[in-house]
Design brief:
- About 45% of the residues lie in helices and about 15% in strands.
- It has about 375 residues and is α/β, with parallel strands linked by helices.
- The N and C termini lie far apart (about 50 Å).
């Protein structure tokens, strides 16, 4: 049975690399996860970073993590095809042990430069998500997986998320990245017991776990309420480490535990030192689990045969129109009240999106997320 590997999310960012350097020097980093689509021009990659990728690739310990594929876009876009073409090219250069993407669709007019947001759980979105996963697997020819989302509009979404993920990945024999801070966000934002949330996921399909930190945002529309945000800019909370201790024993096919943090939260010596301490505590938990793991053979998460996707990607014009409308509302509304009014008069009203049930503080949070991401590209 393969030991679980303590890993870091390592991108071309000087603050991340400076924080992780002592861990690399002490040979503590068992694998690296690379957000390959965050690199604007792969040809501009420094030789030393390419060598780092080649080293872990050659050892079978390089993980690819996507952000901008936009799995559920109702219309197939040229940007999505370019994304797949880039992945196919990179997969010829580097050996990814697996490739993953985020759940959701990206806001914005081209669905490729916005924020990852939740979707309605319908037969249409299920079919589109499966179609996109087949194309993803066809591009990289390795196991593929999806990460659970931190954001939700309602507790009903939280309750259904794990089962919907399981349905999505079944045709490609895919796996789940169980992001424990995302789970923590949902637990705190909706008053749900985190242990109960864990039980809603198909834990035998978990091949990777993410750990990260985040921040709290006070709600103006629900005074006294604070929303936990998955901003990746602070240390890992103690409750998330507790969740790791619990989850690691419940995931028989787990192979990687990855520590994530954005470079913006690693600018000072103190922040970098805390990152190193978080990694060492994570590694302590991982190594303790490795000592007592049941000696079973890990599931490969490869299909019996790779399927060639249909030449014509699935599309849903109504879903596409709704996504465009929602993106515009989230990115341009100047207040919660205006967003609520616009939603009530939109094509999303009285639809599968169930916008009438969205919690005010979560709609307020969606506005903040979408506009933060949009401003980052403007």
């Amino acid at each position: 049975m393969t030991d679980i590997r303590s890993s870091v999310a390592c991108n071309l960012d000087s603050h991340i690399l400076r924080a992780a350097l002592p861990l690399f020097a002490d040979e503590k980093v068992g694998a690296i996860e690379w957000s390959f689509d965050a690199l604007v021009n792969p040809r501009s990659m420094p030789d030393w970073f390419a060598e780092l990728l080649r080293t872990y690739s050659g050892a079978g310990r390089l993980l690819g993590h996507g952000v901008f594929y936009s799995l559920f876009s109702g219309r197939w876009t040229g940007a999505q095809q370019q994304w797949l073409d880039q992945l196919k090219s990179l997969s010829r250069t580097y050996r990814f042990d697996h490739v993953t993407e985020h759940f959701g669709f990206m806001t914005g007019a081209d669905f490729h430069k916005g924020a990852p947001m939740s979707i309605s759980f319908t037969e249409s979105t299920l079919a589109i998500g499966r179609d996109r996963l087949l194309r993803l697997q066809d591009a990289c020819h390795c196991p593929v997986g999806l990460e659970n989302l931190a954001f939700a509009y309602t507790v009903d979404e939280v309750d259904r998320h794990g089962a919907f993920l399981n349905q999505l990945i079944e045709p490609v024999n895919g796996f789940i990245i169980l992001d424990l801070h995302n789970l923590y966000c949902q637990s705190r934002n909706f008053g749900v017991d985190p242990d109960g949330l864990l039980s809603l996921y198909p834990l035998y399909r978990v091949r990777e776990i993410h750990l990260s930190g985040g921040s709290w945002a006070p709600s103006a529309v629900e005074p006294g309420r604070t929303i936990r945000r998955d901003t990746h800019d602070d240390a890992v909370p103690a409750d998330v480490f507790r969740l790791l201790k619990q989850a690691i024993d419940l995931c028989p096919n787990l192979q990687y535990v990855v520590l994530e943090q954005l470079g913006a939260g690693l600018q000072t010596d103190g922040q970098q030192s805390q990152f190193q301490q978080d990694f060492l505590w994570m590694d302590h938990i991982v190594q303790a689990a490795n000592q007592i793991r049941n000696p079973l053979i890990n599931h490969s998460f490869l299909p019996r045969r790779f399927h060639v996707p249909d030449p014509s990607p699935l599309e849903d014009p109504l879903l596409y129109a709704q996504q465009l409308e929602l993106s515009d509302i989230l990115e341009t509304s100047v207040s919660y009240a205006q967003a609520q009014q616009r939603l009530a008069g939109s094509g999303l009203a009285r639809s599968d999106w169930a916008v009438e049930t969205w919690q005010p503080a979560m709609l307020e949070t969606a506005l903040a997320i979408a506009q933060t991401w949009k401003n980052g590209f403007d």
